[in-house]
Design a protein that fits this description.
Oligomer: single chain
Number of strands: 14
Distance between the termini: 46 Å
Helix content: 25-40%
């Protein structure tokens, strides 16, 4: 049995100091409730938006984000992980998930494919996302990695515990309003389903940390401004996908905590024979493609090697 916690963060976009302070406060509170393993969200240092301040907020692999993870792990004798925009020695930025234990960094996973406007800020990785600790084989899945069959295939039956994080944003309420509200209802349901069903595909408990709160930024290649929110869906599930604890985005910042039994089990569900585990819908599919094209060009001009 292990007591685990997942943090739900209301990040201040590109404000590293404020976000690190919030993560330290929330992780410490979770440890006070007995947490032995703590998951921080994806982009815990900056949040995520189409914001031209983000390239300058990318941190080195041994920077203040890594220092915080190592400090909290050593101080509280815990495992703790989360991802941040990491500028590596080759000059490229990656969405790097670092897992820390009492003795330091235990491993790293780079998210495989940037999602939508994330393509403006980092490039993808190629590792398998399996990090080995003294007690567990930890699988890492970040946001829409929870949506892809290739993530299932690299983790399925190979890990004792999945630490996941996301910065999943809503579909804006543009005109025609009823249509966009309907698409957002499906988007919110997909964000929740992707989190709680993943355990059944890989055969291990899932601890998923997320962002909540409002999001306002420009929209790439469009004259419309994006106004929306993060979907949250911070949750802990057992190996069968049963929800142990969950926090809705409307509940704002905080954490969920619960007891799980780590260990790889025969997966309960077969992944579909397609790229995506869950249907994305028309608008997310269009946004995925056009924002990826835009983002790769934007990254080459503003975010890449320096």
């Amino acid at each position: 049995m292990a007591r685990v916690a997942a943090v739900q963060l209301t990040a201040v976009t590109a404000d590293i100091d404020a976000n690190l302070a919030a993560c330290e406060r929330l992780a410490t509170a979770a440890v006070g409730d007995g947490a032995e393993n703590v998951a921080l969200p994806e982009f815990f240092t900056t949040g995520i938006a189409f914001d031209d301040r983000l390239p300058a907020a990318a941190l080195p692999p041994d920077g203040v984000a890594t220092e915080l993870l190592c400090t909290l792990a050593a101080r509280h004798d815990i495992l703790i992980g989360g991802s941040f925009l990491c500028r590596d020695p080759d000059g490229h930025v990656r969405n790097a998930y670092l897992l820390a234990g009492p003795d330091g960094i235990l491993g790293r996973h780079d998210k495989d494919l940037p999602t939508m406007w994330e393509s403006s800020f980092y490039i993808g990785g190629t590792d398998d996302g399996v990090l080995t600790t003294a007690e567990y084989r930890v699988g890492v899945a970040l946001c829409w990695e929870l949506m892809r069959t290739q993530t299932v295939h690299r983790l399925r039956g190979q890990v004792d515990l999945v630490l996941a994080g996301s910065g999943w944003w809503s579909i804006p309420t543009w005109w025609p309003t009823p249509l966009f509200r309907s698409m957002e209802a499906r988007n919110e349901a997909t964000a929740r389903t992707a989190t709680i069903s993943f355990a059944r595909y890989v055969g291990a408990p899932v601890v998923h940390a997320a962002h909540a709160g409002p999001l306002d930024c420009p929209t790439p290649w469009l004259p419309l401004r994006y106004h929306g929110h993060f979907e949250g869906s911070t949750a802990i599930t057992d190996t069968h996908g049963h929800v142990i604890a969950q926090r809705h985005h409307s509940q704002g910042e905080g954490f969920v905590i619960g007891d799980i039994v780590p260990g790889a089990q025969p997966p309960k569900q077969q992944p579909p024979n397609r790229f995506w585990l869950h249907r994305r819908g028309t608008l997310p599919a269009l946004a995925w493609n056009y924002q990826r094209t835009h983002g790769q060009r934007w990254y080459a001009r503003h975010g890449g090697t320096r």
